[in-house]
Amino acid sequence: MQTEEAFEVRFATRLALAALPWFEEEHGEIILADRSVGPIIDTHTHYALPSLSIHSIDTGRETPDSNLLLGRCCAHHLDVRANQCFSPAELRALKQDLIFGGLTGRGKRRDHTAPNLARDMRQMNVTSSIVLGIDLAFPNNHATETLNRARLRSEVVGYGSVHPRSPRRKTRLEEQLHLGARGLKLHPPNQFFRPDAPYAMSLYRLCGAENLPVFFHAGPAGIEPKISQSFAQMRYYERPIREVPEADFVLGHAGSLQHREAIAIQRKYKNVWLEISGLSLGQLREVITEADTDRILFGSDWPFYHPVLPLAKVLIATHGQPELRAKILHDNAARLIERTARPR
Question: What kind and span of H or E run contains 251?
Fold first, then answer.
């Protein structure tokens, strides 16, 4: 049997991952050739990120290239966190695109559409994806647009988003429930709030009453501004988890740089799930070894990253453990989706 250590973990491009035994190249794209892997549920995806532009992005349009933020020609290393795959120049270009696109609605996000997401997922035998809205501090309709698009797609589950500072928290949550929201995405660094803020606690209680999971961006990623990192410290997440046990909480990126703190919280509280996008292979091994494996979820954070990047890490980390692999790639997420709120 081939051991974990025998696998290559550093790849100059996305397509170079075809050297791993589960993948191959087809018409210039990386695909999952080993169909004994899967089906897979990706619990962390987005359509085009919010923009201040009055011109909306047509997320129903298919384009030839998904134009992901970690591009096909970038390094796809498995032994570092995903955001460390960017070279300094690529990281500058990423930040410029996020700012430019946020102001104008242009740039790469115009290719981050529902058909392009579905195409990239099919290449990896991902049969269902959770698509997360995000309600930022500036006026935007990203959450409702995400939910409206998700209603038209059989392969996705839509999560809404309500800014915790909104005075209309309850009304907006109710509106999104009627659009079919199956969960709520919150991003403390981008929404500029601490997860344990009193006004946020009332939102979590509403989610608990409606049986809606709260999907957090959790932990500092290391590439965001220092002020944003300050909102994502793992110690701020424990209060809502402890005080609202009726709600499920998903810690996106499994705490990122603070994955050990996230593991400890997941082990302590039964209403906590760890989503593994962005982790290095070493971090993922720690999560699998130390956390409750019944509450670990696969995710990619598309359109930042192609699902092949986290999938390769899971396949290496679970080599020779088919039952564990199935839990992480599909069964745990299926159970979470099944037991939480239904569209109205």
Answer: strand 249-252
Cβ proximity of 25 and 37 under 8 Å: no
Domains and CATH numbers, the chain: 38-54+64-339 (3.20.20.140)
Composition of the chain by helix, strand, coil, percent to 5:
45, 15, 45
What is d(CA 175, CA 39) in angstroms, rounded to the nearest whole number?
A: 32
Q: Residue 146, CB half-sphere, CA atoms under 13 Å: how many? A: 33
> Looking at the whole model, is its pTM more than 0.85?
yes
Across the chain, how many H-helices and E-strands are there? Answer: 13, 10
Do residues 169 and 143 make contact, with C-beta atoms less than 8 angstroms apart?
A: no
Distance of alpha carbon 307 from alpha carbon 23, whole angstroms: 12
Residue whose structure tokens are 């995903």: 82
Residue range 183-238, pLDDT digits in tens = 999 999 999 999 999 999 999 999 999 999 999 999 999 888 888 889 999 999 99
Task: Compute the CA torsion angle 76, 41, 113, 172 (nearest 10 deg).
Answer: -120
Q: What is the DSSP string of 100-140?
A: HHHHHS-GGGGG--HHHHHHHHHHTTEEEEEEE----SS--
